[in-house]
Design goal:
disordered C terminus; alpha/beta; globular; 2 domains; 15 strands; 14 helices; disordered N terminus; Peroxisomal Thiolase, Chain A, domain 1
């Protein structure tokens, strides 16, 4: 049964705490520096394979980055690529892959009841830098400035390009939530489904960050850009010798549905969104606040009706910066002090920091634990920083967890924005392998 058959007349009531308020994940599409679908992505995480490599960027020179090499012509033409943006292209690839993964009868989906909610860290920097670089060669003659610049740089561009590509006539917008944006997109999609604003949400995060020299130059000037003789070891959250962030591009999009709709069409369910929260430090532009981060985790747990010791896996935000890793670990120790069975891991150690896509990609990398009973490790930890010690921190090798039930995903960003999402194992998620 397609979504078009779930009309306004027979849609379940949205008020109360009934089944129609239960939001589930039924599809995942992604591109990352190590893989471009969930099966291969999960395999790379379990194998301990890094996707960080040497990378040349204008003005900065050789640096390190997480680069995606997905097939950008699978769902777009060369003309589409010339006209659009890298973030838009990433979003289009991920959205189409997610729709296929969800097994949706897309031709019969009512497009006006589909919403697109994509988180971004920043947008328009790449396109503006490119145009200025171009007109510099023409003595700054603005007559050569591209007429595509405005639609490329408006804040809703990535979500708008997805909507155009897929013929979606429902709401679309991007959410500027710094590096908490991947979680923010997911939260927004869930909220809009509960409000009845859409019947299907395409939600997640995208990032084209490696294509702007400004982000590298800024991190470098702060002393926050990671360096290492071996690129694959450069991203090393929690390690005593960590020295900064590895910038990465990527994207991850989830298909979200109300539970009755998913069950009605016999969809495979990856997990159920049972809790989420967002708050603000309100203390500094870039320095994190452990107390506010802990509060965000506690709010999400309270909304989910869970105790900390019921969480099986915590996917940490840790970026490899000195202060950031220490503050997050302090927050987690305060919340999970009486949760000896909770495991903690970090995905940035494999792919770098994918900015607006980070939270979504990191959650996706952990969801297969509901099927394979494994918590993937944090790699590149040769000597654990004592200030980053966590009782259940999984280092360098995956850990078996007997039938994990809850995954909590942390994602924090500049200007003190914090986000947390909690996913519960759904009974049907034991049937088959995620992404298979």
């Amino acid at each position: 049964m397609s979504l078009s058959e779930n009309s306004m007349a027979d849609r379940p009531e949205l008020d109360g705490e009934g089944a129609a308020r239960r939001i589930v994940i039924t599809g995942i599409g992604l591109t990352s520096p190590v893989a471009h679908n969930l099966v291969e992505y999960r395999a790379a995480l379990l194998q301990g394979r890094s996707g960080v490599r040497k990378y040349e960027i204008r003005y900065v020179g050789e640096t390190l980055a997480g680069v995606c090499e997905f097939d950008n012509l699978r769902y777009q033409t060369k003309k589409d690529l010339r006209r659009g943006t890298r973030a838009g292209s990433i979003g289009i690839y991920c959205a189409n892959e997610a729709i296929r993964d969800a097994g949706l009868d897309w031709q019969n989906v009512e497009r006006h009841m589909v919403g697109v909610y994509l988180g971004v860290t920043e947008h328009g920097n790449v396109e503006t830098e490119n145009e200025i670089y171009l007109i510099k060669g023409y003595n700054y003659d603005t007559s050569v400035w591209s007429h595509h610049h405005n639609p490329r740089t408006v804040a809703n561009n990535p979500a708008g390009e997805v909507a155009l590509n897929l013929g979606i006539t429902g709401p679309h917008y991007t959410l500027g939530a710094a590096c908490a944006a991947g979680n923010a997109g997911l939260i927004q999609g869930a909220q809009m489904l509960r409000l009845g604003d859409c019947d299907l949400a395409i939600a997640g995060g995208v990032s084209e960050s490696i294509h702007t020299f400004g982000i590298f130059a800024s991190f470098k000037s702060q002393g926050a850009l990671a360096t290492h003789a071996d690129p694959t070891k450069a991203s090393r959250p929690f390690d005593k010798q960590r020295n900064g962030i590895v910038v990465a591009e990527g994207g991850c999009v989830f298909i979200l549905e109300r539970l009755p709709d998913a069950l009605r069409r016999g969809a495979r369910i990856y997990g159920e969104i049972v809790g989420y929260a967002m708050n603000t430090d309100a203390t500094d532009f870039v320095l994190p606040n452990a107390e506010r981060q802990a509060e965000c985790v506690q709010i999400a747990l309270r909304r989910a009706g869970l105790r900390p010791d019921q969480i099986d896996i915590v996917s940490t935000h840790a970026t490899g910066t000195d202060s950031g890793d220490i503050q997050e670990c302090a927050a987690l120790r305060s919340v999970f002090a009486d949760a000896p069975g909770t495991c903690f891991n970090n995905t940035k150690s494999f792919i770098g920091h994918a900015m607006g896509a980070a939270g979504a990609l990191e959650l996706a990398g952990n969801l297969p634990a509901f099927v394979d009973d494994l918590c993937h490790a944090t790699i590149n930890v040769d000597e654990l920083d004592p200030a980053c010690e966590l009782p259940g921190l999984v280092l360098n090798q995956p850990k078996t967890i007997r039938k994990p039930t809850y995954i909590l995903n942390n994602s924090f960003g500049m200007l003190g924005i914090n986000s947390v999402v909690i996913i519960k194992r759904f009974a049907a998620s034991t049937q088959g392998s995620p992404g298979a």
